[in-house]
Amino acid sequence: MKDVKFNYNPHISVDCVVFGFDGEKLKILLIERNIDEGKEFYSDKKLPGSIIYEEEGLDTAASRILTELTGLKNVFLTQFHSFGDPQRSSNPRDVNWLEMTTQTKIGRIVTVAYIALIKIDRKIVFDSESTTAKWYDLDDLANMKLAFDHNEIALKALSFMRRFISLVPNALFELLPKKFTMTELRSLHDIVVGVTSDVRNFQKKVLQTPGLIPLDEVKKNVPHRAPKLYSFDKRKGSKIFF
Amino acid sequence: MKDVKFNYNPHISVDCVVFGFDGEKLKILLIERNIDEGKEFYSDKKLPGSIIYEEEGLDTAASRILTELTGLKNVFLTQFHSFGDPQRSSNPRDVNWLEMTTQTKIGRIVTVAYIALIKIDRKIVFDSESTTAKWYDLDDLANMKLAFDHNEIALKALSFMRRFISLVPNALFELLPKKFTMTELRSLHDIVVGVTSDVRNFQKKVLQTPGLIPLDEVKKNVPHRAPKLYSFDKRKGSKIFF
DNA sequence: TGCTTATATTGTAAAAAATACGCTATGAAA
DNA sequence: TTTCATAGCGTATTTTTTACAATATAAGCA
Prior knowledge:
2 copies of one chain form a homodimer.
Chain A: E1 8-21, E2 26-36, E3 41-46, E4 49-53, H1 58-70, E5 76-83, H2 92-102, E6 110-117, E7 131-137, H3 150-167, E8 180-181, H4 182-193, H5 199-206, E9 212-218, E10 228-232
Parallel strand pairs in A: 1-6
Antiparallel strand pairs in A: 1-2, 1-4, 2-3, 2-7, 5-6, 8-10, 9-10
The structure holds a DNA duplex.
């Protein structure tokens, strides 16, 4: 599964909180792992992530691991926090699983967490050797017990993402398909920022954004008046965060 | 120097970018280290930081290390970024020094960086065994070559701090003495945020802040009209960042 | 003591930005 | 052709931000 030329660094990992938007709700991409515990079969969920290689930078590792687990490349990725509670990797189930998949002896791990924003219609390799990637409703997170401290990480990621979008609204376009309607943009914005914008005022402001281009095209197959499509040109409308 | 009951984790460190304000300029607290290289004596500067203990959380480590190197306790500390370039700990001078002071074999280190905001008039233990803590003008940073990748860390800390203050202006009070004048507050604000505020408009806005209390006291020993002093009550005026 | 110097203190008007609000249009389905 | 569901679109009001300058006072000095 992994390139044996490289040695793992068993002390540091990266985890990615991958967000998507299905037109109605925010989604999070989780890895379902199947654990054969001998007497019984156990299945639970975790964030896509793994320990890094000895000779590898953090951003590189995040991007590599995301590709390995999902097939995704060229993803918008930003580091947001590191988690190092000494107890965070103390569950034997987590440790055993990691030791098995990496063939490496694991002790305490500090993890560097990233958020990723992706267009939900991108093709994802949903099955790898021992794992399956699946989209989940972000609302359901509270009812799921993820591996390690991944619940905490995901929650903090969400709060970071909201703040990040308030600062850099353009990053929203990472979550939308290439062609989108004004309503899609608005409802995504409202969900993320946690407001309910006025339709007209939102449109007014958004149309001033450099890079937002109205297309000569409408959305097909809707059971009502067809809405106009827009696209966004990054080069014209980027702001810088860091 | 350090408690021998604890084992170091030689893979992870924390570094603190400590900011202060002297009434005119932003300052950064650096550690001067003196290296005896046998044939010659070498001296340079670094951020306060060190490798963590095996059983220690990250926030705890940051706070402990800051206390060890400066004597400071109860400091405003926030994690802001982790740095993990495989080359960042490749300078033999840095590695040797760390191995000497910690008596631990060092390889690649990922560091978790924090910003600290402190009142510059707090007492600092400026001398420890092999190091001296000193305040430096932040402007001079560009002309100093710090150890490891500490120049990069300090720069990113500054940019984070500016953004942080824009979100949580109340954190400015961490940098001011307990009693301060409106002018001090304004010039600090302006330096950090990078604007020049109108005197009257600034005052107007700031006086609406809950927790900002005008005192019945003026600043003494000024060669002109004595300005009124203010203080800030955290409990009444706190916003939450994370 | 009174004059000079340096900074402190204070309000109002104009401009800009944010908000509130409802009617007509149109594609699809029945 | 009617109904349904959402698209599209402009103006008036409120709130926030900005611009701007004359008087007050503590300290130092003649």
